Amino acid sequence: MHKIADKLMQVTARLQQASQQAGRGRDAVRLLAVSKTRPADDIRAAYACGQRDFGENYLQEALDKQAQLADLALSWHFIGPIQSNKTRPIAQAFDWVHSVDRLKIAQRLSDQRPEDLPPLNICLQVNIDGEATKSGAAPADLPALAQAVNQLPRLKLRGLMAIPTPSDDPTQQRQAFGRLAQLMTDTNQRQGLQMDTLSMGMSGDLEAAIAEGATWVRVGTDIFGARQ
């Protein structure tokens, strides 16, 4: 567990250094610890170090861990693909959803969000590179999707998420993240929206994402180690 503490400190230092180099404030970027496939004890160890936000891809696994960690004040983010028949438990059990890519899913999440909970924070996933095998709305479809989601009563449209084509070239990394940032700016202006969140950047490219305006970076391996 000391290893998780050490790795978490290293990632936090990277975030702070990247933010400083980009001329952004110390608290401009938040860390989402991607805890998919990790046991509840790993999450508990990260919590002991001050980490509060955790991202999960697999619904049943996440629900099991939530039950085991119910004594902790955690914020849960769903970041994986969403099937229509899984929207109810997601609407009931999560604080954020980063992976909404079509209106049908958003409508179901809104309809199924309990009235006693705050509106569900939503990021729209964009297929920023047009990859045939990747989830996400096409950039051309985003304005209409964002406008429609913004009207749903039990959701709060926060921003955009993307997983660009992997690249080791910082210039290419920044270009992809820059396209997503510009897309949010353009959509806000044209649709009269107030999105404020860019969920982008992972272990291998978080510096480029922060340089282009990321507000959430999603890091798993560099906190918890290689998957078992």
TrEMBL record:
Residues 10-227 form the Alanine racemase N-terminal domain. SUPFAM superfamilies: PLP-binding barrel. Its cofactor is pyridoxal 5'-phosphate. It comes from the Bacteria. Keywords: Pyridoxal phosphate. Gene3D superfamilies: Alanine racemase. CDD domains: PLPDE_III_Yggs_like. The keyword tRNA-binding does not apply. Pfam families: Ala_racemase_N. GO terms for molecular function: pyridoxal phosphate binding. The modification N6-(pyridoxal phosphate)lysine is found at K36. The keyword Nucleus does not apply. Belongs to the pyridoxal phosphate-binding protein YggS/PROSC family. Pyridoxal 5'-phosphate (PLP)-binding protein, which is involved in PLP homeostasis. PANTHER family: PROLINE SYNTHETASE CO-TRANSCRIBED BACTERIAL HOMOLOG PROTEIN, PYRIDOXAL PHOSPHATE HOMEOSTASIS PROTEIN. This is Pyridoxal phosphate homeostasis protein.
